[in-house]
Amino acid sequence: MNDVVASSSRLMTVLRYAALIVIAVVLLLPVYWLIMSSFRPAEQIFANSGRFGIETLIPFELTLQNYRDILAGGFPRALFNSLFVSFMTVALGILVNSMAGFAFAVFDFPFKRTLFVAVLLSFMMPFEAIVIPLYVLMRKLGWIDTYAALIAPDIASGIVIFLFRQFFAQIPKEIYEAARIDGANWWQIYRRMTMPLSWPTAATASLMMFIHQWDAFFWPLVAASSPDLTVIQVAIARNMTLEQSNWGALFASASTAVLVALVPFLILQRYYIQTVALGSDR
Q1: Domain end point (choices 21, 41, 65)
Q2: Both 204 and 79 in a single domain?
Q3: How many domains does the chain have?
Q4: Which domain holds residue 29?
Q5: Do residue 95 and residue 51 come from a single domain?
Q6: Would you write out the chain's pLDDT as a tens digit for each of its 282 residues?
Q7: Backbone phi, then psi, for 245, in 5-degree steps?
Q8: For residues 265 and 123, what is the distance between their CA atoms, to the nearest angstrom?
Q9: Judgement on whether residues 142 and 251 belong to the same structural domain of the protein
Q10: 268 shares a domain with 156
Q11: Which one of 48, 65, 82 terminates a domain?
Q12: Under 8 Å CB-to-CB from 119, ≥6 apart: which residues?
């Protein structure tokens, strides 16, 4: 009887892993084709798209010309712009959002619940609903066509404030009171006690803000039309025009964007999964 149960358990495990492998292959196959196509000569990219075969998956002629084309254009500048905007947003966003989350978790102040509801509603609101007033505000400040216009609107994030608030609220208030009795002020408690403990939440928030800025297209297109401020998603889209499409450069630039965004995800994924798992238990 025990042998039958053990055999059944092993069979279910094998089937489970087989299903996961199939799902992973289906999800990753388009990304694989994108990257492989970036190494194909332009005339061969869609040569075998009408039928699915080995030629579709494995290019028999490889070239780096597509990558030479994007390096010779404005893509390196766009790559730098996106990296700079993303890292600055993460650095400033962690500071601002963690302080806001700390305040919501620890302090009692008038309209606290109302303000927290407003924070929750802020990340449910479509960005298109606020783009016009946001553009007017940026123009009044004189920030149009500057890095400030790309960075400032995304520093405060409702979902990140929510994550920090949830984490800080789990710390017993007796710990805060003990620290206050020992003579620590609130800034010292925040900086020396709570922030070092919130590393998984901070890593998750950093990843979320980085990916959000890395994928940004509509707002950078509106707020920073200068070629010197072009970000990576806008640079990718400019490979397609009404007259023609440079598919080789499009796939090369898109592959580069995917691989660069993959690096922080691989580094921080365990913290992201940990934070999501803890959040689901609360």
Answers
A1: 65
A2: yes
A3: 2
A4: 2-65
A5: no
A6: 556 556 677 888 888 999 999 999 888 888 888 888 888 887 787 777 667 767 777 778 888 889 998 988 889 999 999 999 999 999 999 999 999 999 999 988 899 999 999 998 888 888 888 899 999 999 999 999 999 999 999 999 999 999 999 999 988 888 888 888 888 899 999 998 899 888 888 999 999 999 999 999 999 999 988 889 999 999 999 888 766 778 888 999 999 999 999 888 888 877 777 666 655 455
A7: -130, 125
A8: 22
A9: yes
A10: yes
A11: 65
A12: 100, 104, 158, 161, 162
What is this structure's pTM? 0.86
Looking at the fold, whether 54 and 165 belong to one and the same domain comes out as no
Token couple for 186: 């609130």
Residues in the chain: 282
Tokens standing for residue 91: 């650095």
